[in-house]
Amino acid sequence: MGLLDINPLAEGHCLIIPKRHVPWWHDLTTEETESLFSVARIIAGKMMQTFQLDFVCLYARGRRIPHTHIFLVPTSQGDPVDRFFNALEGFQEAPEGLIRLKQEDRMKETDERLRKI
């Protein structure tokens, strides 16, 4: 189901929530995942038409409130959400610890580790 967030980051900010209580999105069944993202896509389309946006930001939550929910946040260039993600991307590109993660040998090692599971 989709509902408006009680503490919106932007007009139209919605939560998409599965019916079954699941703390983490990656523990949803395939069917639940498909349903959740289908509802998110429908609502994001309505947001785009209603608010004439640049983008609808989507991210999965559940850490602070242990029930999977997807944030759909309408965003446009320069608004608080856009500035936040631009700052996050800038951080991602700069620190030495993160720069090391994108080196070819490290990427290969990470890929191999993930494929083993």
What's the short version?
With 117 residues, the chain is α+β, with helices and mostly antiparallel strands. It has four helices and four strands; from the N terminus they run ββαββααα. The chain is 47% helix and 17% strand.
Task: Walk me through what this model shows.
The chain is of the alpha+beta class. The chain has two domains: 1-76, HIT-like (HIT family, subunit A, 2-Layer Sandwich), CATH 3.30.428.10; 77-117, no CATH class. The chain has four helices and four strands; from the N terminus they run E-E-H-E-E-H-H-H. A hairpin with a 7-residue loop joins strand 3 (55-61) and strand 4. The longest helix has 22 residues, at 30-51. The relative contact order is 0.15. The model has no long low-confidence stretch (mean pLDDT 86).
How many beta strands in the DSSP annotation? 4
Strand content: 15-25%
Counting helices, strands and paired strands, the structural category is alpha+beta
Distance between the termini: 32 Å
Described by its quaternary structure, the protein is single chain
| Highest-level CATH class of the largest domain | Alpha Beta
Q: Strand order within the widest sheet?
A: 1-2-4-3
Q: What about the largest sheet?
A: 4 strands, antiparallel
Helix content: 40-55%
Number of continuous helical runs: 4
Q: What is the overall pLDDT average?
A: 86
Chain-wise SSE layout:
Layout: E1 2-4, E2 14-16, H1 30-51, E3 55-61, E4 69-75, H2 80-93, H3 96-101, H4 104-116
Antiparallel strand pairs: 1-2, 2-4, 3-4
Features:
single chain, four-stranded antiparallel beta sheet, 2 domains, alpha+beta, 4 strands, HIT family, subunit A
